[in-house]
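Onboarding guide, step 5: your first structure request.
Type a short instruction followed by the sequence, for example:

Predict the 3D structure of this protein.
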Amino acid sequence: MDLNEILLECFQKKASDVHITAGIPIVFRINGELVYKDERVLTPKECEELSKQCIGDEAYNIFSSSGEMDTSYAIPSTGRFRVNLYKQRGTVAMAFRSIAYEIPKIETLGLPQVVYQFVAKQRGLVLVTGPTGSGKSTSLAAMVDYINSNRRCHILTIEDPIEYMHKHKRSVVNQREIGNDTVSYTKALRAALREDPDVILIGEMRDLETISIALTAAETGHLVFSTLHTVGAAKTIDRIVDVFPPHQQPQVRNQLSTVLQGIISQQLIVNKDGMGRSVATEVMTLTSATSNLIREAKTPQINSCIYNGAQFGMHSMDISIAKLYKAGKISYESACEFAIDIDNLKRLLI
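The system replies with structure tokens like these:
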């Protein structure tokens, strides 16, 4: 069984993910749905052989002792994959996330116009949030590519693993991968502050120390981009603050109230015709009102600011979903499924 053939079929079928697990056929995720490649059931031995094709014998020995491994895999001139190998019930399993070689443009992704304001900032923190598989990495790659194409600066990315490969355009782009180029996000971020970056991309803000250094970097004159697995600005802010012990939380809220330039939350919704998915977004920008609410620990009231902040580039997830429905892109059932407040959505659809 050839791994490249499987992954080439993934690209042909426009699948976002491939799952390889013993005891079932190969599984593709197409438009958010899991679909069997065929009826052929994989054996434990075949899964092991495919994993060795992916990472090689030497890395396989390291994986065998640890039980999981993050890496990337490329098919020349076709595309790349973010890969996680893991053990389950004593057998090898793998999850592949497809990443196209070509970095999409901001306008082709359906992102709101306010994104162009975020990428023009000289300093501060911009977060892209959403559940797994909602396109956060792709959105960030498009933003970094826009900066790379339009500004002369030093862009430093810290990723686990590197997903989109950026070429040097007007900017200098250095990409560091956890495991290959550095030990951890924390060590890489500490070093980053001494590497003269203008823009820093952190693949994910996972822990207290990473978040703390990211806030410091944004506070000291860098433009910092990162992701969190949250839906909605209020939940994102609370997630960041709650990572810290209670005695530090007022200081963190104060930092956030000054450095947070914006939060884009996004979800991908299957199109009504079954061909592809559309992005629905919520946007919060930093205004005097949102800044005060963050500082005073009144995050639940941020939703009200978002609903009434269209003049500042803000909009709610439900408004975005309603627009997609009215434009005929998504079905009523899908709109209701992804709504944050279904009663509010129904009022918007009238």
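Each response can be followed by summary notes, for example: The first helix runs from residue 3 to 12.
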